[in-house]
Amino acid sequence: MQGVAAVLLPGIAPRDYKEGEDVPLSVNEMTSVRTQLPMDYYKTHATDSQCRVVTDKSAEVNANLGELLSGQMMSPTSYKIQMLRSLKCQIACKDQLTPELRDTIKQMIRDQYTVNMNVDRLPGAVKFTVRDPQKTATEANDEKANQVFVMSGFPLGVQLKNQYYLHNHLKFKLEYHRPEDAEDNGFSVYRVVGFEIEPSSLKQFVRDGGDSAVCHSEGATLEPLDLDKAESIT
Q1: Which helix (H) or strand (E) holds 109?
Q2: Would the pLDDT of 63 be above 70?
Q3: Kind and range of the H or E run holding 8
């Protein structure tokens, strides 16, 4: 029998998280199938935006060898995720929408830019269903009768004729695994094994001094965020 040797590259091994521990969410450069030109994620935010977690390169997320070789640039975000904690209607940050920023975002939507987020080096996946228009209403609601596709990342926004809608509301779903006999000082630990994103465009209404927002889960009917009508992005 031949021997087998393995090398563990820094940043590739999964990380263990205890219950309630913060799970960092990072973002890669945005990509476009039209321009083929990567774009900094924070280009969709104001220069002095509170959404910017860091402004200098030295504080960016440490990339592993594979990311460095492929030229990826990971940056931290202000989204809050905790292991085994269900957080709803949280406000990550708020940006004032200047005319220059509005035009920049609209152009990036026209160029079909995709936002690429990661949790523990796992890319965020977006599922969407394609229904056959020839099927009956009952068949159309049957998930097994429809095609489900998965894409990496989500569109920055959508353009409907001359109206532009930004995907400003994100719902995260994390799948986790508890390794057998894995503990940290007597506490059980968990590993992230899946990361799903459900993007939507919502005109947010804040409350509690700006710490939370009204969500669809509470029965509220919210309008999409029209960039030409909005004064800020939440």
Answers
A1: helix 99-110
A2: no
A3: none
List the domain boundaries for the chain. 16-233
Q: pTM to 2 decimals?
A: 0.80
- Quick one: residue 112, left, alpha or beta (phi over 0 = left, psi -120 to 50 = alpha)? left
Tokens standing for 147? Answer: 């095609």
SS3 category, 128 = strand
Look at residue 59 in the predicted model and tell me its pLDDT: 45
Strands (E), the chain: 17-18, 25-27, 31-32, 75-76, 95-96, 113-115, 117-119, 122-123, 125-130, 147-152, 154-155, 157-160, 163-166, 169-177, 183-184, 187-200, 206-207, 212-213, 232-233
- Please tell me the predicted confidence (pLDDT) of residue 167: 94
User: Which tokens in the block code for residue 38?
Assistant: 């990567």
Find, among 163, 130, 128, 153, the residue nearest to 26 by Cα.
Answer: 153
pLDDT of residue 55: 46
* H-only helix segments in 111-205: 137-140
Q: Is the pLDDT of residue 219 over 60?
A: no
